[in-house]
Amino acid sequence: MQAQSASGTAPVLSLRGITKTFPGVRALNAVQLDLYPGQVTALIGENGAGKSTIVKILTGIYQPDEGTIAVDGQEIRFPTAQAAGAAGVTAIHQETVLFDELTVAENIFIGHAPRGRFGLIDTARMVEEARHLLASIGADLDANIRLRDLGIAAKHLVAIARALSIDARVVIMDEPTAALSHKEIHELYDLVEKLKAQGKAILFISHKFDEIFRIADRFTVFRDGQFVAEGPMGGVQEADLVQMMVGRAVDQIYPKRPAEIGAPVLTVAGYCHPTEFDDIGFTLHRGEILGFYGLIGAGRSEVMQALFGITRPSKGACKVEGEVRVIRSTAEAVEAGIVYVPEDRGRQGAVKGLPIFQNVTLPSLGRTSRHGFLRLAEEFALTREYTRRLDLRAASLDQDVGLLSGGNQQKVVIAKWLATRPRVIILDEPTKGIDIGSKAAVHDFMSELAAQGLAVIMVSSEIPEVLGMADRVIVMREGRIAAEFVGETMTPENLVRAAVGIEEAA
Amino acid sequence: MLSSLLKSREAVLAFAILVLVALIALRFPAFVAPSNLAAVFTDTSPLIILALGQMAVILTKCIDLSVAANLALCGMVAAMLNGMGVPLPAILLAVIVLGAALGAVNGLLVWTLNIPSIVVTLGTMTIFRGIIFLLTDGKWINAHQMSAGFKAFPRAAFLGLPVMAWIALAVVGCFALFIARTPLGRALFAVGGNPHAAVYTGIHIGKTQFAAFVISGALAGLTGYLWVARYAVAYVDIAGGFELDVVAACVIGGIAIAGGAGSVAGAVMGALFLGIIKNALPVVGISPFWQLAISGSTILIAIAVNARSQGKKGRIILKQAEHRA
Amino acid sequence: EPMRIALVVKALGIGFFEAANKGAEEAAKELGDVEIIYTGPTDTTAEGQIEVINSLIAQKVDAIAVSANDTDALVPTLKKAMERGITVISWDSGVAKDGRLMHLNPSSSALIGNTIVKLAADHLPEGGDVAILSATTTSTNQNTWIEEAKKVLPNYPGINIVATVYGDDLADKSYRETQGLLQTYPNLKAIIAPTSVGIVAAAQAVEDAGKVGSVNVTGLGLPSEMAGHVKSGASQSFAIWNPIDLGYSATMIAYHLAKGDAKAEPGAEISMGRMGNVKLDDNNEGAMADPFTYDASNIDQFSSIF
Amino acid sequence: MTAASQPTPRHIPDRLKSRLSRTLKSWEALLLVVAAAIFVANALASPYFLDPWNLSDASFNFTEKALIAFAMAMLIIAGEIDLSVAAIIALASTVMGSAMVAGAPVWALVGLGIGTGLACGAFNGLLVAGFGLPSIVVTIGTMSLFRGISYIVLGDGAFTGYPPEFGWFGQGYVWWVFSFELALFAVMAVVFGVLLHRTNFGRLVYVIGNNATAARFSGVRVDRVRFILFLLTGVMSGVASVCLTSRLGSTRPSIATGFELEAVTMVVLGGVSILGGSGSIPGVVIAALVMGLVTFGLGLLNVPGIVMSIIVGGLLIGVIALPRLWAMMRK
Ligand SMILES: Nc1ncnc2c1ncn2[C@@H]1O[C@H](COP(=O)(O)OP(=O)(O)OP(=O)(O)O)[C@@H](O)[C@H]1O
Ligand SMILES: Nc1ncnc2c1ncn2[C@@H]1O[C@H](COP(=O)(O)OP(=O)(O)OP(=O)(O)O)[C@@H](O)[C@H]1O
Ligand SMILES: [Mg+2]
Ligand SMILES: [Mg+2]
């Protein structure tokens, strides 16, 4: 039986019963998805709902454990990325999948460059077509420039051009606007309209509801790897979608507890960096959760890493509990009581390949050891204490951290820092890519930390999270502090305006 | 424009080579006579050819320490085939195929079993040389055991240059075309530069690395014949330790050891730089005992210079910085 | 059971030593109850030789005859061998006095030094610039011969040694060093290479540079390897002792010393079978025979033998 | 009741598998079986093998390389490599030789040898940890540089005539058949085993090898650890240089040629991942014994060295390939 849309056309692409399991996580559990020609289907779901996983299955990067893919009703398999391209499926992936050492044109056409004599790549034609594609998406870029000389937004445009370089019937966009500026976002909307008019089926993944209501014709909702619902956008309300996505009332996810805001702990003044940020200054108090909001690439992580001693500011001063601290290395930051839970968990957070307890005790080895010699019993005791507090789920404490789910890895990283008894904890996108249960746990814990008098900085790109958790919000844009909001003024509109630049949003 | 030209690795290297040649010419003017420069180039041909093969491998984040052993084995087989009266074209074909096959052994182990290339080639390096010993019982094949045609081919002059130099030039040309204009050539950069993204674009990492080893092997095979014919001798230890020269040439030429970055011009100039030093030392009258220390210092300086010119670029979040850059 | 004599060479696979092994086998056959163990490292290092000698000591061989890669580095190990009752002699390339009972020079060093200069001078009636292409910087025998050659230089007026370079007994390195010589010294008249690897490479380089006739390559080489270059004219003549005889003589000496029917002491005479007797000097060293000169007139006769 | 609304966190056991079962399945156990098999095969193949003095002599085949391999193992576990170790031996030996000629006493020679190793290690460490250059190319460069300096100093000459007392380090015996080198090997095996497996420093080595970025993000002074590791490797090369120079009784610039690759082979054979992050000292100790037994056993049969190196090369690829092949076939 074939699904029929309201308008009566048959789907170009149709997935049934797709299941995908990773070690420790069932990313997708018998989900379905239909895409119709000339229509935009929004795929909605919380972080970790399995959206990107389905994109990877559709583009031949992952093979599903179970389930079928059908194009025009014909069952088909995508063993490689090229097979998916040949079947007319193309995607703009969430991560940048580009090559720094190749030129823009080469990036766009790698894998399917136009061939000339002797089967060699026809460079002239390739550059010509690349220019054409870039122009069609309104990107003002030199096709011959090396990618490493471009900024992140420009790179994203290249990724879009690359996706369009395949003459596709199905175009998938996984959070395409996350890294774009306001103007570029509007150009992208125009592009989507153009593709629709050409009869292409579009799968649009986004966390931004205004965007979804603006361009989507249909929606499909996933929750924790399960299919929840699908239907036309007409008539559906934002609240309904949220209810489907989250499966419970939103306030449960943001269990902000009142905490007494005390004396200043951290004072930052005039932090500058030649290329990353400029004139950053703020004060953080005991018991406070200070939110840092901004678009991806606004430079929040860079500021936090400067506070943590990873990068060095060219100017500026930092005081911890009134005492001036010069932080030149992470070791000095930890000594000063500043710790940082990084955004890139896989690379910067957990040391995969080593057991949980060794991760947890890493910055506290000085306390668990004697005269530089390890004492395993002490290490296990410390680990047990902190992992219990975070309700870690693991088979044993000497299990490899790499085998844990994302949320539990995050807990290990947090436990590692709590064990050092810090004064300031910086959480950079603390719930990015972790499942909804863990997310609530992390929020709950963040509240508890603040209540216990710890000063918390939370960097987040999710407005509900910022609004739900923070006492005060600083918005950054292009490496500078754009605005600060407290209490009443903390509204989604204000945050977005400040983040994209007020004059543009007007 | 000019400043960006000065910043490019190739320009720095070309400049360094010019300075080097000028310094030598100051002490020994005959060094820059065209005929002598041609001789230096001819002498450096094996290094250039091998450096290109090594470049292909290094681009994919691997390393081939077995090139010199592969060269020696193919060279020995060439000499043995010659002894059996096999005609030269057939020998050439045979050594290239054999070299490619030896490279394929490396490549297969790296691709299918995912063994780190340094371990694989450390092992095959001794195994290939061992095979020569088993083939020959350790005996040398000397000039008088080789046919005249076999020895004459690489040194036959054509338009003022020996065939050996022409072969090197042809290999450079083909390789440059291969790197710039074929999907596989581009894939080498992709696999080394961003393996994760390569998968997204349908490029198979293992197969690409395999191909790089085959190319490196084939070039080593070709060089094996050239070497043996040129020096008119074949034995177990020919080109012993040459793999380090080859890697050094790549490093000096700015091929990033972490993969994904480098240029044909860089590799060729890296090889030429080493070749010129090697040839000039005896000429300039510097004791041969200084040679090792000089090439070591050169490598260190080259790494430092490359690291500086590649120096971490800011991500340019600040708009004003973007304008300045 | 037969007496086991180990013939330890600088490295396996070198034609010269393969020929010496033939001689050793010949001696073994002649003596009847002797087994030859022909062995050596893969490349010419002292460390490699020490490993080989250690395993020979372990096998309790009766005698070790070694051509050393390093005069001094082998001494401690060879001393240990002698302590365990093994007869140790060196031949071709010697070890220091403490490390062996006696050393058999292929010929007297002075004679070789003189011969290599004479070979060059014979074809340079007017004198001229001459360069030396040696093996490795650590080769004992080459270093001694070059020293001796320099001593007799005043006897050859007009012959002027302008440089000594090292090809490390590697064909390609020797080739390159020769090229360097040809360029640096445009007036070079002869190259003396007292090593079988170097002389071949030098002759090849001279041919490739088109300098046959103006630069004469001479020194010590094997007739089989040099035949082509003598014919091409790159080498007018060269000398060598017979490596077969050398291996034969070393084996004979080792046998007699191990048997106990001869003693290695200054002035002693030890039998070398068909090669006659060797007389030991104050250093317990002896010379086998005079080097023999090969040129176009006799090369064909010998090139098929060794 | 609060207990109902807030369920007590699950208990997580410290360890699942017992130590014994893990040990039995380990790489070291496999290697030990290989070593035992080679030992038995050797004993059967040659009547000279089971002789304490012969075995003691054979130990010289690997002790110096193993001393370097211990430090190299830590360096490789931390994700770095040092190819200049053999060149450091040459340079340290040259420095000792020069001092000997100048009349320095034995203790000063030893001090200078180890000190030179330390200085060379510091130079490598500075370039790698200080300037962030890749260690493989840096040490390919310093490998030429260090040995090159020896060539400049010595040329075609040699330093000989070390005082007899100096010979003890490479030729002396501590007790019965136990040479000083063998004793040093045993002591260093324990020292490095404790350092890597029982101290904070050792822990950091593993952490850095698994994920240097995360280590830095955890407050580890990554570059300091790397620097110390290069120092350690330099010092051990210096120690090896003292032993080797003493054993040979002479210094030439070509001393210890090729030792770096043998040390790396030993480390990799010992189960240390060349990509960093895993491996153990016991593994390296057993690998040293395996390599020593193979070369000595084949030496007793008068197998040429190059055939031994084929076997070692094959062993290297084989022991790494077999488990992977096995895993592939089971899939
Ligand atoms: N390669 C992998 N190995 C293990 N687990 C994975 C892998 N890829 C994804 N997962 C897990 O699968 C689940 C779904 O991930 P997916 O990336 O599809 O989520 P998403 O809906 O795209 O989230 P987001 O909105 O954050 O992009 C997550 O729990 C994630 O941790
Ligand atoms: N020029 C660039 N090239 C490639 N990747 C980039 C570039 N700029 C930023 N990124 C990547 O984009 C992501 C977001 O950048 P960054 O962390 O600087 O921004 P941010 O303001 O901290 O945003 P957030 O914390 O919300 O992600 C990071 O993973 C970073 O590595
Ligand atoms: Mg996603
Ligand atoms: Mg960030």
Automatic annotation (TrEMBL), chain A:
It is a peripheral membrane protein. Its main location: membrane. InterPro entries: AAA+_ATPase (IPR003593), ABC_carbohydrate_import_ATPase (IPR050107), ABC_transporter-like_ATP-bd (IPR003439), ABC_transporter-like_CS (IPR017871), P-loop_NTPase (IPR027417). GO terms for molecular function: ATP binding; ATP hydrolysis activity. Coiled coil: none annotated. It comes from the Bacteria. The keyword Lipid metabolism does not apply. Keywords: ATP-binding, Cell membrane, Membrane, Nucleotide-binding, Repeat, Sugar transport, Translocase, Transport. One of its GO terms (cellular component) is plasma membrane. It is found in: Cell membrane. Residues 13-249, 261-503 form the ABC transporter domain. This is Sugar ABC transporter ATP-binding protein. It comes from Fuscibacter oryzae. The lineage of its organism: Bacteria, Pseudomonadati, Pseudomonadota, Alphaproteobacteria, Rhodobacterales.
From TrEMBL, chain B:
Keywords: Cell inner membrane, Cell membrane, Membrane, Transmembrane, Transmembrane helix, Transport. It is found in: Cell membrane. InterPro entries: ABC_transp_permease (IPR001851). Its main location: membrane. It is a multi-pass membrane protein. PANTHER family: ABC TRANSPORTER PERMEASE PROTEIN YPHD-RELATED-RELATED, AUTOINDUCER 2 IMPORT SYSTEM PERMEASE PROTEIN LSRC. This is Autoinducer 2 import system permease protein LsrC. The lineage of its organism: Bacteria, Pseudomonadati, Pseudomonadota, Alphaproteobacteria, Rhodobacterales.
UniProtKB/TrEMBL annotation, chain D:
Its main location: membrane. GO terms for molecular function: transmembrane transporter activity. Pfam families: BPD_transp_2. Keywords: Cell inner membrane, Cell membrane, Membrane, Transmembrane, Transmembrane helix, Transport. InterPro entries: ABC_transp_permease. The keyword Secreted does not apply. CDD domains: TM_PBP1_transp_AraH_like. GO terms for cellular component: plasma membrane. The chain crosses the membrane at residues 29-50, 62-79, 85-114, 126-153, 173-196, 227-249, 306-327. It is a multi-pass membrane protein. It is found in: Cell membrane. Part of the ABC transporter complex LsrABCD involved in autoinducer 2 (AI-2) import. Probably responsible for the translocation of the substrate across the membrane. The complex is composed of two ATP-binding proteins (LsrA), two transmembrane proteins (LsrC and LsrD) and a solute-binding protein (LsrB). This is Autoinducer 2 import system permease protein LsrD. It comes from Fuscibacter oryzae.
